[in-house]
Amino acid sequence: MQSECGKCTNFDENDHPLFSNYKGYCEVYKTYYDPHEKGDCRNFNPKFHGSSSDCYITTIVHKILGKEDNTEVLENLRAFRNDVLQKNEKYSYILREYDVIGPRIAKCLEEDNDKKLCKYLYDKYLVKVSEDIKSKNYLRAITKYEMLTSSLALYYNANQNDKIDDYDYTKGGHGKVYTKAHI
C-alpha cells in the first residue's frame, strides 16, 4: 500500500523543534521523515479525514489516539451510559449536556488533532472514569466525567444554551439530541 508519512497517526510533525518545519518523528521507526515521503509502510495507520464523530470521547480514543473502538474503556463508558445513566432521570442533565455540546467538542478536538492533549485526557480522565465504573463508584466516575466535560467546554467555548423541549434521556449520551415523540 502506498502511504504518506504526514497522513499517519504514528507521525508526529511537531516532535523535534529543529525539524518541525520540514520533518516529523515516526513513533514506530523512531526516526525523522519528510511528511510527504511516500512508501510501503507496514505500520501505516491513516489519520481520520472524514466527518466528525458526534461523540467527543470516541473522537479522543478512536479517531485521534487510534485505539480500537471496542477498548475496555469505551465499552465500560457505553455500558455505564446504557445501564445506569439512561435508566435514571436524575442523570438526564449529564446525557443532555453530552448530546448538546459533545459534537462541538468533538469537532474542535478533531480540528486540533492534538495527540498529546488527547493522551492526557485519556490517561487522566477516561481511564480513571472507567476504573471507577468497574468498581461501581458511580459518583466519583460522574464527578471526573463532569470535570472533563466542563474543562473541554470552557477550553473550546462550547457552551450549552440550547433549549430542548421533551429531551429523551433514555436515548441520550450519543452526541445526538433525541426528543420524545408527541402522540
Describe the structure.
With 183 residues, this protein is mainly α. 44% of the residues lie in helices and 7% in strands. It contains 5 helices and 5 strands. The protein has helices at 56-64, 72-83, 92-112, 115-134, 138-155; strands at residues 3-4, 11-12, 24-26, 31-33, 38-39. It has a 3-stranded antiparallel β-sheet with strand order 2-3-4, with no helix packed on it. A two-stranded antiparallel sheet has the order 1-5. A hairpin with a 4-residue loop joins strand 3 and strand 4. The chain is elongated, with a radius of gyration of 19 Å. The N and C termini lie far apart (54 Å).
Q: Structural class, from secondary structure content?
A: mainly alpha
Low-confidence stretches: 15-20, 48-52
Distance between the termini: 54 Å
Output the helix-strand order: EEEEEHHHHH
| Inertia-based shape | elongated
User: What is the mean pLDDT?
Assistant: 80
- How many helical elements? 5
How many strands, which pairing sense, and closed or not: the largest β-sheet? 3 strands, antiparallel
Helical content stands at: 40-55%
What value does the Rg take, in angstroms?
19 Å
Trace the largest sheet across and list its strands.
Answer: 2-3-4
Which band does the percent of strand residues land in?
A: 5-15%
Strand elements, count: 5
